[in-house]
Write a structure and sequence with these properties.
5 helices; 295 residues; alpha+beta
Length: 295
């Protein structure tokens, strides 16, 4: 399969150091293997010694799906990709760090590729991942690719990413990083409110891992990180490691309006999460955690 020298464009990243995909191959028309490299050190996805966060797996998957949509399935680069439903149980042992880079093989099978007459494509992917030959995690993702004109109609006044990005609300004060399993305030995605289990989403567009380039809305990875941090907050003082996000993205989350994150413990290691904007649930899900994976 030919390799595109513009790999960062295919995985929707501007910073080449954040490109995780190393290689990919076709098994069949609907099945591919994407190999990603996990760096030994990463300030955001490995906030403390001992383990990566499970969202490194999610970001690997996001890049792999973007790559395949543009290469294997011929979806043009100007189409806009969006996730609708996401479930991804990760094996805790697969997140252990060794002091060296790690390779992960993701076997991605697309069970649905539905192309609509106006150019929108709906896709469903199932993923099985291995690290050093051992099961690392799995995932199911339902996502959509809209042509530019259709996406612009859907987004209306928010269609211009640079203009929407410029209107982003300034980030509020970060909660204590230790409360949410972080070590740096710049990586915190929650601001405190006067209600237990209720926070304002903290959107720091200067965080170049979460905001690699201008967006017209808040990326799903930011919401998932907020869900992970909220799950840790409601488990405190116990330390946990979020491992599975069973999440539905209901609508686009705007940058220029406050978004509220709520978390409610369901069991010792499960929490129900929701994101609400303008009185409507924009994302919701269950986060399942494991005992803390730290050093």
């Amino acid at each position: 399969m030919p390799r595109d020298t513009g790999l960062k464009r295919l995985v929707r990243k501007e910073d080449p150091s954040e490109v995780l995909v190393k290689d990919w191959r076709e098994v069949s028309a609907s099945e591919h293997v994407v190999t990603v490299n996990w760096p030994a050190e990463h300030a955001f996805y490995r906030p403390e010694p001992g383990s990566y966060t499970s969202l490194l797996f999610t970001e690997s998957l996001r890049q792999g799906l973007a790559l395949l949509s543009h290469t294997a399935f011929g979806i043009p680069l100007d189409h806009r990709l969006g996730w609708e439903r996401f479930r991804s149980p990760v094996t805790p042992a697969a997140l252990r760090t060794t002091g060296e880079d790690a390779l992960l093989d993701m076997r991605i099978t697309h069970s649905e590729i539905t192309r609509r007459r106006m150019g929108t494509t709906f896709l469903t992917a199932r993923v099985e991942a291995t690290r050093d030959g051992r099961h690392a995690g799995s995932a199911e993702v339902r996502y959509v690719a809209h042509p530019g004109p259709i996406y612009d109609r859907l987004r209306g006044t928010y269609a211009d990413a640079k203009a929407a990005f410029a209107r982003a609300l300034p980030p509020g004060p970060a909660v204590s990083p230790e409360l949410v399993g972080r070590t740096r305030a710049q990586d915190v995605t929650l601001s405190a409110t006067d209600r237990p289990g209720h926070w304002q989403l903290r959107v720091d567009t200067s965080n170049t891992v979460l905001f690699d380039h201008p967006h017209d809305h808040i990326p799903g990875m930011v919401l998932l990180e907020a869900f992970a941090q909220a799950a840790q907050a409601v488990a405190a003082p116990r330390r946990i490691s979020p491992m599975n996000f069973d999440t539905t993205f209901h609508r686009y989350v705007e940058l220029d309006q406050p978004c509220w994150i709520t978390a409610e413990p369901v069991t010792r290691y499960d929490a129900r999460l929701s994101a609400v904007q303008n009185g409507e649930v924009v994302a919701s899900g269950i986060v399942t955690s494991a005992p803390h994976m730290g050093h």
